[in-house]
């Protein structure tokens, strides 16, 4: 047995029916180390994390912590073994306060633990993550999603854990918030704690981690020192090839394009006024940091903000805001950034999720047609790249990236669609999965839909958008064609818009 290892996972195997999710995988973690888990969606990362955190049980293999053989039976037992998980999907209870969420599931049993769970200690913890302005008595659901993610991280850090798993922890955070997370992680490792870092953001891996283990199709490809790697090298190991570049703004406008015109759109309290016009065939990216107002604009256009005001026309017809049903009737389809809470039915199968927005189209006389249902599922599965053999699996059992593909595929190719809205379409998705999702969106635009998406990730905006709209503090900073911008100019507008708008 290797010496000085915090964690050893040896020959871990896990299958779901005919799918081998992990095939004799081994992984280790040293004290004070930040170790990255990398791989495309469905590669096996999430399964390994679920086994370590007690969510699922392996078919075979051994797990040792500090040299002692353990068998995490459930999440509570894993926590008792010193394992804390920050999942990419929020597990906070919105109606509970920040303090209640921080303590949820980890009520202290010993006097020494009570001190670390006191209000003063919890406030100090929030301060370290840049949440010093947040009151412990605030209902968590009232916080922006980025701050909710930081509360989730704070809860894991508050536990006396030896191994902390961060699964896509920065997907909804701004650059400033990400730096807070990095600082907290570094403090933990200085204390001898070990961190498993799962992320598709390769720049973060290169900045924060010491080693990286790469998976592909349930198999371990190898473990390397991060100092020996660069971004393109990691991508090639993950995928077996370097993905092709996107089209970078080559819109094909149809002969009779649909058009959405937005004038003086107000979305209290974040967006005072927003103006934009998008033509069918175009892909417009709303670029900005978390909280810039882009998500609020998309939700308002999708009919999800009753307080939204302004003038919106679709192909010359005025749209009354505040109703998802009216938005759908106008040909507007919206995919949210939170697939767990708003996007998918996690306890239902892939096929049921794919047809859930098409029931009238696959029904005859009030009954679902098996033939129409099968044809629809087959067509949409082909778009996702998910094997037809897996269509009966619960969506919740898929990797986050494959869940995202199901949600995106479901919301395109809709009868009568004119405007497609995607809020963070590739959130928590690796480079290969992102390319697949971008191709789905490009295909929808090529069919004549006007596409508007939001993203906090610069690479995604530059890859996908024909026109880039940068936003800061609820206002538009710039509107430019992709060919007219550089990465530096977009980043400047995204992060320093306050200086530009006040000039």
Largest sheet: 6 strands, mixed
Summed up, the domain count is 2
Principal-axis shape equals globular
Uncertain ranges = 109-114, 497-503
Name the helicity range.
25-40%
| Beta-strand content estimate | 15-25%
The CATH topology assignment of the largest domain is Rossmann fold
Mean pLDDT: 86
Strand order of the largest sheet: 6-7-8-3-9-10
CATH class of the largest domain: Alpha Beta
The tally of beta strands, per DSSP, is 22
Name of the CATH architecture of the largest domain? 3-Layer(aba) Sandwich
Give the SSE layout.
Blueprint: E1 7-16, E2 19-29, E3 34-38, H1 45-52, E4 60-65, E5 68-70, H2 75-80, E6 83-86, H3 98-103, H4 111-116, H5 119-128, H6 145-158, E7 163-167, H7 175-190, E8 194-198, H8 202-208, E9 211-216, E10 219-225, H9 231-239, E11 259-267, E12 271-279, E13 283-287, H10 294-301, E14 309-314, E15 317-318, H11 324-329, E16 332-335, H12 339-343, H13 350-355, E17 363-364, E18 367-368, H14 370-384, H15 400-410, E19 419-423, H16 431-446, E20 450-455, H17 458-464, E21 467-472, E22 475-481, H18 487-495, H19 497-501
Parallel strand pairs: 3-8, 3-9, 6-7, 7-8, 13-20, 13-21, 16-19, 19-20
Antiparallel strand pairs: 1-2, 1-4, 4-5, 9-10, 11-12, 11-14, 14-15, 17-18, 21-22
Helix pairs in contact: 14-15, 15-16
